[in-house]
Amino acid sequence: MKSLSSKLMALVLALSMLMGTVVVASAASSTDYSVKVEDNKVSFIQNGKTIGTYNSKDAKLKLVTDKDGDLLVCFYDANNNYKRITLGKQTSLSLSGSMTSLTLDKSLNDSLSFSVSASVGTMSVASKNSVKISGKVDKLTITGAAKVTVTKDGKVTSASVAKSATLTNESSTKIGSANVKSSSSKSDTPTLRLVGNAGKYDSNRDDDDDDDDDDDDYVARRKPDLDIGRLEASVGDELRDLIDDLNNEVDAYWEDDDHDEVEVKGECKWKKKNSTELEKSGEYSFVFTPRDTKKYREVSGSIYIRVD
């Protein structure tokens, strides 16, 4: 009966994907699904077999828990339709392949665990889950009280860590930078554990502070957090051509004491001249200016632009 049930579940998944409906997976570990993203194709795999595949728009995945407590894998398909694939009460999920971005939403059940062996451009963790990274992440942002471990096979180029989070680096590759997010004073630091030859961390790092800023001003005007995506351009394009895309790819928010995110409205502008022509892929700096400058401070950031 167990074998028959497993086969029926696989059939339901395949048929549901064809119909564009959601799927409920069994909670048994033997029938857990994993997710693989290759060439903008999102595949759901069970027991080593691909059960169904979607063509995604941009290989940007978001993991959430719905009101019924089910784990959802969300993304836009090639027709710009938003898909929510349900994995039911599955308690862990492995993700592999290559994706533009991966977001672990704050709605996720705390008991869920995730393993990421994929190559990820931007990874955002707003939840309290346990996460293991054995793949390559260009930019890691942790805004929730998550416990994130970079294994010996993993690599994180840069990290931004909330004071409530734990980041453990067991790899031999250093994390380029790990700076405080959502701090209310300069003495606040995240729980950052460095194991072995781990990344450097400066608890006083604040790229946007002037040396003459006083502590009262630091506390009074909150520093928004930025969730930054990626951009694509062609050789010869100017930065002015990407200003709208820049503002679409940057979300600003403030995390309160309850770890709830409050949206901060504002505008991004390039630090370089708008007439700057793009010649190669790389990081390009910008400044985010909040509308409410009495409550929030300007924040500097950088976004990766892929130039073809």
How would you sum up this structure, described in words?
The chain is mainly β. It has a domain at 221-307. 10% of the residues lie in helices and 44% in strands. It is built from three helices and 23 strands. The strands form three sheets. It has a 16-stranded mixed sheet that branches. Strands 18-23-22-21 form a four-stranded mixed sheet, with helices on one face. Strands 17-19-20 form a three-stranded antiparallel sheet.
Number of helices: 3
Strand content: 35-45%
CA-based shape: globular
- CA radius of gyration is 20 Å
Number of strands: 23
The chain-level structural class is mainly beta
How confident is the prediction overall: mean pLDDT? 78
What's the helix-strand series? HEEEEEEEEEEEEEEEEHEEHEEEEE
**Helical content, roughly?**
10-25%
Largest sheet: 16 strands, mixed
Identify low-pLDDT runs.
Answer: 1-6, 15-22, 24-29, 179-220
> What is the straight-line distance between the termini?
54 Å
Protein name: FecR protein domain-containing protein
Organism: Harryflintia acetispora
Keywords: Signal
Give the key terms.
308 residues; mainly beta; 16-stranded mixed β-sheet; four-stranded mixed β-sheet; 23 strands; 10% helix; globular; signal; FecR protein domain-containing protein
Task: Give a nutshell description of this structure.
The protein is mainly beta.
Topology overview:
Layout: H1 2-19, E1 33-38, E2 41-46, E3 49-55, E4 60-65, E5 71-76, E6 82-86, E7 92-104, E8 113-116, E9 119-125, E10 130-133, E11 136-142, E12 147-150, E13 155-162, E14 166-169, E15 178-181, E16 191-194, H2 215-220, E17 225-228, E18 230-233, H3 243-249, E19 250-255, E20 261-263, E21 266-270, E22 282-290, E23 299-307
Parallel strand pairs: 1-7, 4-7, 7-8, 7-9, 8-10, 9-11, 10-12, 11-13, 12-14, 13-15, 14-16, 18-23
Antiparallel strand pairs: 1-2, 2-3, 4-5, 5-6, 17-19, 19-20, 21-22, 22-23
